[in-house]
Amino acid sequence: MGGSGAMEDKVSRYLHHCRAEKGLSSNSLQAYARDLRRFVKYSEPVSWAGISLETLRFYIDHLRTRGLSNRSIARHVTTLRGFFGFLCEEGVLGHDPTELLASPHIGSSLPKYLDLPSVDRLLESPAGESVTGIRDRAMLQVLYGSGLRVSELIRLRVSDLDESSGVVRVIGKGDKQRLIPIGRAALAAVAEYLREQRPALLKGRVSPFLFVSARGSALTRQGFWKLLRGHGRRAGIFRSLSPHVLRHTFATHLVEGGADLRSVQAMLGHADIGTTEIYTHVMRSRLKQAVDTHHPRARRKGAPLSGGKGG
């Protein structure tokens, strides 16, 4: 029952279970695989019977000494809980050693997002009328106008866009399909790109993907990150810019504009409304900041709450 070969076999079976039964995305499966292979390498001399709560606590300490953040360690703990729970269901283990394994506390942090002037600068940053500039402008408009994940954006096919109804069909996490309306600005940018620039990039080649590289293939995640950082620098946005920041910006601006949470949840593809509720906290934080900054009776550093007696 011990040995790395046996462990690797169980890991493969668990990943297959996550893909076939849980419908997890390829990105989630890759993260699980990395975490579990790291654990297998660490626990190689230990038999399955020897993996205890103490073993797992030593492993978590090992991750901490390797410089992993609390967030990364919490993800490892989640992965291990799922894996050992699966082994118990399969009858490989009679007891789940992760049952009392504590996860590090992660302070709640509000998502980073851009204000409207920053968004405007970013959308205008792709250079002039160049082929890649018009393509990049269309990609940024679609990302901000729909809240797509970067993996969803680069996998979009031409057939996924319905210009007449102004919606895009997306296959998201767990291969779940959703229809997302996109605004006139994004539709116009895509139409301009499709008219001449996409054929110029393809040079007679054929591709089902909406956004293509100079080689005629779909853009990669790394390729999009690189071009986004470049446009961010030109727009004067030097720190913390990522595709997910634009996704958060889309959702935050919707909630600030009065959109209901259920609609935002559907557009983002969140399985749980609780995940979407973070944007109400963003809005409350913005309102509090506005009061603290602009209200004449708001608390200021070193100043009393009110200027006189009575109420």
Write up what this structure looks like:
The chain has about 300 residues and is mainly alpha-helical. It is built from 13 helices and 3 strands. The chain has a 3-stranded antiparallel β-sheet with strand order 1-2-3, with no helix packed on it. A hairpin with a 4-residue loop joins strand 1 (about 160) and strand 2. The protein is globular. About 30% of the residues are buried. Mean pLDDT is about 85; it is low at about 300-310.
Task: Describe the secondary-structure layout.
Elements: H1 4-20, H2 26-42, H3 53-65, H4 70-89, H5 116-123, H6 131-146, H7 150-154, E1 161-162, E2 167-171, E3 177-181, H8 184-202, H9 221-234, H10 243-256, H11 261-268, H12 273-276, H13 278-294
Antiparallel strand pairs: 1-2, 2-3
Number of helices: 13
- Strands of the largest sheet, in order across it? 1-2-3
Q: What pattern of helices and strands is seen along the backbone?
A: HHHHHHHEEEHHHHHH
Oligomer classification: single chain
Query: How does the helix and strand content classify structurally?
Result: mainly alpha
The end-to-end span amounts to 75 Å
Count of DSSP E strands? 3
Mean pLDDT: 84
Radius of gyration: 24 Å
Shape: globular
How would you briefly describe this protein structure?
The protein has 311 residues and is mainly alpha-helical. The chain contains 13 helices and three strands. Strands 1-2-3 form a three-stranded antiparallel beta sheet, with no helix packed on it.
